[in-house]
Design a protein that fits this description.
alpha+beta; 106 residues
Length: 106
């Protein structure tokens, strides 16, 4: 009976610690990655400011070559939209929209 009581106390302490940890965690997270590309900004910008050349450099394209793509909105820059649909769970269904574009910068 004493072992059961000790086990119960230990479990209760662990639950309190876990609960306290969850409460202290931030409510949101931010992740950012960056790399250095040895190319002129004009070359890079031309590749990423529209979705037509997306599959030439995107690692997602290699996961499922049979992914279906639909392009709409502007041809490039703000308003360009790419929708995709794949049977592969790692690719799935989704969309991207260019919401901000600054020539040769971002």
């Amino acid at each position: 009976m004493k072992a059961l009581k000790i086990t119960g106390i230990v479990v209760a302490i662990l639950v309190v610690i876990l609960g306290g940890t969850v409460v202290l965690l931030p409510s949101h997270a931010h992740m950012e990655r960056s790399i250095v590309i040895n190319a002129k900004p004009e070359q890079v910008f031309a590749e990423i400011n529209n979705f037509q050349s997306f599959n030439s450099w995107s690692p997602w394209a290699k996961l499922d070559p049979d992914t279906k793509y639909d392009f709409s909105g502007a041809a490039s820059g703000v308003g360009a939209v790419m929708n995709w649909s794949s049977e592969n769970d790692n690719v799935g269904i989704g969309s991207q929209t260019i919401v901000e574009s600054e020539e040769n910068k971002r």
